[in-house]
Write a structure and sequence with these properties.
alpha/beta; about 375 residues; seven-stranded parallel sheet; six-stranded parallel sheet; globular; Glycosyltransferase subfamily 4-like N-terminal domain-containing protein; Rossmann fold
Length: about 375
């Protein structure tokens, strides 16, 4: 198939927002499909191609990898200012509502810039399906516009909760503008429930995958002092405080390896704790870091519904603990894999979990784990796009 995948985040953006669509594009290209990955430009840099250069570049492209088409912003200064929190505070909400009602999105600058490329893609690439993730509604609008121009179909993906990212008075109104999607996909079953609630449609769950490297049996935990991996955002200060209290109540001596961007918040919560702070890491680095630790921890963000880093951590055969408690879907995945997983309600539960679980090595079901690779999940996506 000829496919166009749309996501605002450029694949080189050092943030999880870039991962899902870019990695799915790579997996679908490995499966023999021609995939254009349409994104915004990276950090204000110029685009890789002008619209007039796209036809020749498409003809010359090696389709074993996705064709990156990064589109520069154009106009949309009001939307950009509101996204960045600039402008009079009292006017922000009314202006946001106006933009959503009349422009259907807040990334109009990116949508305007992408508009110059769509006729070229429609004429010379002729996509059969366009898949776009929310994210933001502008990705959907770009995919829908391209699909209409090319005579193909568009599929809407939900990776962020509609009920969190769209203002409450506008959720039903805006959802009604996108029910023409051929199909919906969702990051998790919980995201699929959001689709049913707001759009009145069923969604196929397509998890963000894991690298094939995670299928290999990991090395045994290192000897010597205990090392604990803490991964991702820290979110609610209450939960960060419970994490810090739980570590203190546990009372063991350990180095905390934090792979995330909120280093200052963590240092403030654990000023006397030995910390290593590699910052944001890619999946290959994550596996290396986790293999050098005795257990993995993360702070769950209930607003996100599903933490896609869960499966990577479970694949390492070490105990994985989260705080606050996980949703039933995550618990089911952990049970199916046979993983050592503890969902902690508070600091006491975290301290007990560390005491009981540290030192365990429990091999997960690697046959079951293979269902969560990018290639396996891409097969599910391709069935929807066909």
């Amino acid at each position: 198939m000829r496919l166009v995948f749309v996501n605002h985040c450029h694949p080189q953006t050092p943030h999880v927002c870039a991962t899902r669509v870019a990695r799915m594009a790579e997996a679908c290209a490995r499966a023999g499909h021609q995939v254009v990955l349409l994104t915004a430009t990276l950090d204000g840099q110029p685009p890789r191609l002008a619209p007039g250069d796209v036809r020749t570049a498409l003809d010359r492209h090696d389709w074993t990898t996705p064709f990156l088409l990064d589109c520069p912003p154009q106009g949309g200064h009001l939307a950009a200012a509101l996204r960045e929190g600039r402008g009079p505070r009292l006017l922000r909400r009314p202006l946001l509502a106006v933009l959503y009602l009349f422009r259907l999105g807040l990334f109009t600058d990116w949508r305007n810039g992408a508009g110059a490329y769509l006729p070229v893609l429609a004429k010379y690439f002729r996509p059969q399906s366009c898949w776009a993730t929310f994210g933001n509604t502008d990705a959907w609008l770009i995919a829908r516009s391209l699909a209409r121009q090319a005579g193909g179909k568009w599929v809407a993906d939900i990776k962020d909760p509609w009920s969190i990212f769209i203002p409450a008075p506008l959720r039903r109104i805006l959802a009604a503008r996108f029910t023409d999607a051929t199909a919906f996909t969702a990051l998790s079953d919980q995201h699929g429930a959001e689709v049913r609630h707001w759009f009145g449609r069923d969604a196929v769950t397509v998890y963000s995958g894991i690298d094939d490297a995670f299928l290999a049996v990991p090395p045994a935990p290192p000897g010597g002092d205990i090392r604990l991996l803490l991964l991702g955002g820290l979110y609610d200060p209450k939960h960060l405080g419970q994490l810090a209290d739980g570590l203190r109540q546990w009372g063991g001596k350990a180095t905390l390896v934090y792979a995330g961007s909120e280093i200052a918040k963590l240092r403030a919560a654990l000023p006397d704790w030995p910390l290593e702070t590699p910052g944001y890491v890619d999946l290959a680095q994550l596996r290396h870091l986790a293999a050098g630790c005795h257990a993995s921890l993360y702070v769950r963000n209930p607003r996100a519904l599903y933490q896609h880093k869960l499966v990577e951590l479970l694949a390492l055969d070490r105990p994985t603990l989260c705080l606050p408690e996980e949703a039933p879907e995550a618990m089911t995945i952990a049970d199916d894999l046979g993983a050592e997983f503890r969902s902690c309600a508070d600091a006491d539960a975290l301290a007990r979990g560390l005491t009981e679980m540290l030192g365990r090595v429990t091999p997960v079901d690697r046959t079951m784990l293979a269902a969560y690779t990018w290639d396996a999940q891409a097969k599910r996506l391709l069935e929807v796009l066909a």
